[in-house]
Amino acid sequence: PMNTVLLTTLMKGLAQAGRIDQAMEIYKRMLIDGEAMPDLVTFSVLIKANCKAERQDVAMGLLNAMKKAGVQPDAYIYNHLIAGCADLAKAQQAKQLYQEMVSSGVKPTHVTLSVLVRILERGRLLKEASALLETEPVAHGIVVEARVYLQLLRAHLRERQGRHAARLYRVMLAHSSPTDDMTADILDCCAKMNLPETFADIVDIAREAGLRFSPRAAEAISRGGTRR
User: What pLDDT, in 10s, does the model give residues 126-159?
Assistant: First the structure.
């Protein structure tokens, strides 16, 4: 007889071949037969497949089904569900999933925060995204890649939110390891947006942190923070 492992392997193969409906039929048959029941891996396979296919409603239904069955979702599952929100621009649902994840005792990963920041940025919720990066990495002992901070910092600058950009730069230096050229990129962006006060703030914060300026950054500083 087919057991959960064999059936899950079959569903995974079908999902990878793009035959998600057939994989879901096997899942439904498992529930009807009641012999080999879906486990964490089964739900992981199906949720991932449905999220990738932008079938978020089906994926959310699977999340609810697994919780009702007493199967605890893990970070892998929540990450896929949150990423599915990114594809469909559902920022509110992504935030709710994150809160559910944390409140249920599942530790977020750097992937969780990176994806959530991207969703909030796309939704133009820049201040919420910055607040997330200020508090959540410390709260959960996560190291977020410097590029995530840089991406959000640029978005603040494009919206001429210089004060928020400078504050996020300070957080970036405290909790990540930016490359030398990242500061140069930020200074170039300040100059391009004609934000001389923010330019000066970034330089001051970098100097306070003992940062050594790259040749590109030094050149930007010599130009004085504006472009004509």
Answer: 999 999 999 999 999 999 999 999 999 999 999 9
| 160, 193 Cβ separation under 8 angstroms | yes
Measure the CA–CA gap between 88 and 90, rounded to whole angstroms.
6
The DSSP code sequence of 134-147 is: HHHHHHHT----HH
144, 113 contact by CB (below 8 A): yes
**Residue 130: how many other CB atoms lie within 10 Å:** 24
Q: What are the CB-based long-range contacts (under 8 Å, 24+) for 185-188?
A: 185/150, 185/154, 186/150, 186/153, 186/154, 186/157, 187/217, 187/220, 187/221, 187/225, 188/216, 188/220
What are the tokens at 58?
A: 């089906």
> What are the pLDDT digits (tens) for 188-226?
999 999 999 999 999 999 999 999 899 999 998 988 755
80-91 pLDDT per residue, tens: 999 999 766 689
**Closest-CA residue to 194 (of 160, 220, 154):** 160
**Sign of the Cα pseudo-torsion (87, 88, 89, 94, in order):** negative
Contact 100, 67 (CB under 8 A): no
